Amino acid sequence: MTATTATTSTSTTPPTALHTPVIDWFDEHARDLPWRRPEAGAWGVMVSEFMLQQTPVSRVLPVYEEWLRRWPRPADLAAEPPGEAVRAWGRLGYPRRALRLHNAAAAIAERHGGEVPTDHHQLLALPGIGEYTAAAVASFAYGQRHAVLDTNVRRVFARVVTGTEYPPNATTAAERKLARLLLPEDPATAARWAAATMELGALLCTARGPECAKCPIADLCAWRGAGSPAHEGPPRRGQTYAGTDRQVRGKLLAVLREASGPVERAVLDRVWHDPEQRNRALNGLVGDGLAERLPDGRYRLPGAV
Question: Which of the following is catalytic: 28, 39, 49, 80?
């Protein structure tokens, strides 16, 4: 079976032809990351997957290491107020991930005796766990056979198999079907393939500067074979930050995170000049459970003393 049976691909390369060169490249060039080490365990893998969403490895590393030192097991995190998770999240961004990770830890402690479940369906049933994270934990922590589709993997498959520079803005059913088709049959090999394609996208098949000369499957790449045509689909979404509500939320949350107790409203009012935007951002933090408004009008992290 060829990859063309799963999508409107321009490639006729059998999936098996891709496995060995990509995995061999990974064995030689993979970064030594703490969540890839055996001692990380399933909890370490889960923590890393939450932190790495939309955040580069360089920013995640120090927070990850401190997090695992403080909370080496899910039950350790579950025993703390959710505000402590938000505080420890620091400036990783998208702090709702900290609340979701805390909720998942509480569920693991309550439902699974404090051990991250091995079953994919049980992982999916945890709060804050979506299809990607469940597949990644099952694959990377337990060596199971699942299609793990992050942005890097989707970009590799788009170029190598479908011959396009970038994947669609949102993951499609066709991409999922292709990813399943490309999976090696052996579970251990499939798990290695998932990690290898992710690393290939992170290090060589990057969004802006692909290093095709170093790619182990450059001669099999449909996009390169077609002359590396420029992207013709919908505009790729940029990530603006300056002046947005997200920036204001970050500034407000930084004050709450660094405070030793509840914060007066007047202190929060000083972090941003536009009162309407500031109020909207503050109300958003409260609505998302990232901050609490006390009866006396002061604010604090959720569950903080």
Answer: 49
| DSSP string across 102-155 | HHHHHHHHHHSTTS--SSHHHHHTSTT--HHHHHHHHHHHH--------HHHHH
Q: Can you state the angle between helices 82-89 and 57-70, rounded to 10 degrees?
A: 140
Query: How many residues are present in the chain?
Result: 305
Residue environment code for 148-175, b if the CB has 16+ CB neighbours within 10 A, otherwise e: bbbbbbbbbbbbbbbbbbbbeeebeeeb
Model pTM score: 0.89
Phi-psi sector, 80: left (phi>0), alpha (psi -120 to 50), beta? beta
Task: Give the pLDDT means over successive 10-residue stretches in the chain (305 positions).
Answer: 41 84 98 97 98 94 98 98 96 94 98 97 96 97 97 97 94 96 97 98 96 97 94 71 89 95 96 95 96 96 85
Q: CA torsion, points 219, 225, 227, 230, in degrees to nearest 10?
A: -100
28 assigned to active site: no
